[in-house]
Design a protein that fits this description.
single chain, alpha+beta, 60s Ribosomal Protein L30, Chain: A, Phosphoribosyl-aminoimidazole Synthetase, Chain A, domain 2, 2 domains, 7-stranded mixed sheet, 10 helices, 11 strands, globular, disordered C terminus, PurM-like_C_dom, Thiamine-monophosphate kinase
Amino acid sequence: MGEFDLIDRFFKRPVTRNVLGIGDDCALLAPAPGMQLAVSSDMLVEGRHFLSTVDPEKLGHKALAVNLSDLAACGAKPLAFTLALSMQHADPQWLEPFSRGLLALADAHACELVGGDTTRGPLNICITVFGEVPQGQAILRSGAKAGDDIYVSGNVGDARVALEVFRGTLSLGEAAFHVARARMETPTPRVELGQSLRGIASAAIDVSDGLLGDLRHVLRASGVGATIETASCAGLMSAASRTALDAQRQLDYVLAGGDDYELVFTAPASRRDAVMRASRDTGTPVTRIGRIESGAGLQLLDAQGQPFDRGYTSFDHFA
C-alpha cells in the first residue's frame, strides 16, 4: 500500500472547516469573527509514551485526547487537527483500528482531520490541534491570584497505578486493573468543562506530567505560591485503584503520578458556586484541594494541618 492509498483509505473524509479538503499543500482555516485560534501539538513515541502492545484503537484515541486536553485547559472549542504519522510498515490491520479510535474521538468533539504527513520510520504520532476561543477569554497559566481556590477535575493517579502494574511493581485485581488501564490508555479530555470555566477560572493547565509539577507551571507563570491540603486529595484516585495501595502510595501517585489529562485550575473563592455549576452542567466532578498564596513556593499540609515535604517532582523527558 502506498502513502497516498493509505491516506485515502484510512484518513480521508469530508471536511467543512478546511475549505480545500485533504490533499492540498496547506489547510485553510478561518476562525469565526471575534475568535482567536488556539493551537497545540503533542507527540507520542513508542517506548516512551506508550507500550508496543497497546491496542491501536486505544492509541488512536489517546493520541488525539492529549491534544484536546490542551485545548480544554485554555477553554477552547476544538475545530480541526493534523496528523503526522511515522511507522515501519503500512499495516492495514494496525491502521484500521488506529484510525477508528482516532476519528471516533474526533467526531465526538466535531474536530476535523484537515491534513498531515506520513513517512516510514519508528512508530511516532504527532498531532497538532486547532481550536477557537472568544477574543480575550482564553484561560491562561498566568492568571492565578492570592486567595484563589485550587481545583482538580475527575480522578488522578490511576494511570500511574496501571503503569506500575505493567512494570511488575504492583498487583491489582482484574476489575481494578481494567479501571486503571482505561484511565491510562483512553483518557477523557475535559473539553466541555474547560469551555464552561471561561470567565470563572483564573488559570488552568492540564495534568500530564504530575499534578504538583504541572501546578508549579501555573505558580511560576502567575508569580504566586500555593498551599495544598493533602487530606482533600485522598478521594482523587478511583476507589478501585485505592484498594491495592497504602495511604502514602496513594498520595504519591495522586500528586506526582502523571498521564492523567485532567484539569488543575484556580478560581476566586467568590466563584465557588459557579465552579460547582460548571461541574454539574458538564457531568465532571471537581475537587477543591487548596488555595493560592501571595508568597512564592508550594506547601503541602498533612491531615493535621502540618507542613511536610516529600520532594515531589514532575516528569521531564530530558532530566
